[in-house]
Design goal:
two-stranded antiparallel sheet, alpha+beta, 2 domains
């Protein structure tokens, strides 16, 4: 094998490695266009010039391949934040050591949308819990049921 052939093979392998890395968490290559959610919630477009600002966006996961994906993520973040804030402002303090205290959460159900269920001792880091099912129902109404399904539960 010649040096040129080896260099070509190395370049092909490096390209495959880069593609595999990008499949895990997409990051734009140098010069590639990406979309991001700006501080005011608007969707902006930029090219990766590997400047500090580009690297900062990549490091916090604020780079998207399409404008549609950036828009979806902006809405997901917005409605999740509003839902969480509503619940936190209206719920009684939860005591996870007290198995007799009911705690409620919303779960998605394939083909059925969602349901609210009491839990006593299991706490999932990604769930939002309330002291009553009524608080969760009010929070869903606050953000809108369609927004809740689409952006928080990600079910249609």
């Amino acid at each position: 094998m010649t040096v040129e052939q080896l260099e070509k093979k190395i370049a092909e392998l490096q390209k495959q490695i880069n593609e595999m890395k990008r499949e895990k968490i997409w990051k734009p290559l140098r010069g590639e266009t990406y979309f991001y959610v700006d501080n005011d919630g608007t969707i902006e477009e930029d090219d990766n010039n590997e400047l500090r600002i580009d690297l900062d966006k990549m490091n916090v996961g604020n780079c998207y391949q399409t404008e549609e994906k950036a828009e979806f993520e902006a809405n997901r973040e917005k409605y999740t934040r509003l839902f969480r804030q509503y619940v936190e402002q209206h719920t009684e303090p939860l005591d996870w050591k007290n198995i007799n205290q009911d705690k409620y959460s919303v779960y998605s159900s394939v083909g059925e949308g969602f349901y609210i269920s009491p839990v006593a001792t299991i706490k999932n880091a990604f769930q939002i819990y309330a002291s009553s099912d009524e608080i969760l129902r009010n929070a869903i109404e606050f953000v809108g049921e369609e927004n809740f399904k689409k952006y928080i539960l990600e079910v249609e």
